[in-house]
# Entry
Amino acid sequence: MTVKMKKLLFACLCTAAFSTGIYAQKGDININAGVDIALPTGDFGEVYNMGFGATVKGLYGISENGQIGLTLGYIRFGLKDEYDENLSGSLGIIPVFAVYRHHFGNLYVEPQIGFSSNKVKLETETTGWGSFGGSASETSFGYAAGIGYMLGDIDLSARYQGLSQGGSGMGFLAVRAAYNFSL
# Structure
């Protein structure tokens, strides 16, 4: 993550923390826990299968229609078998994103920005030598843009999430079903 991205993330998190302390009483305070199914796009989709995971959001009301908060989670993508028959592996993504959610009745839009901790694990089978493996981790800039619908305490949403991994960008489309706990 570059210095410029770190400064932007820090400014977003400070704004979120400052706003929460002043305006939390204006709206709801929620914990939102859900499961995610993710479909990799572009070159990322040529290497990895569909991903599965879970995310938790803390949302703090700043107005009747707006909430800010933090998203934490884990999504795992398995390496496609047809990518290399002697290679198996996975990519695990842990997003930590600042969130703004704006409600239009039951419908909402939700931009997110932050960073992702990404861990690649690979193992290769070599004839006569057994298997060899390794892993590598990287922290990268991440973002997401989503839309959702609240059915009482049930939260259904879809988003595009992007991140930079190894100097190149990659992304996925995800759907999420969650339960909203009011505090």
Notes: The two ends are 34 Å apart (CA to CA). Residues 3-182 form a domain with the Porin fold (CATH 2.40.160.20). The mean pLDDT is 83. Strands lie at 29-40, 48-61, 66-79, 87-104, 107-126, 130-151, 154-165, 168-182.
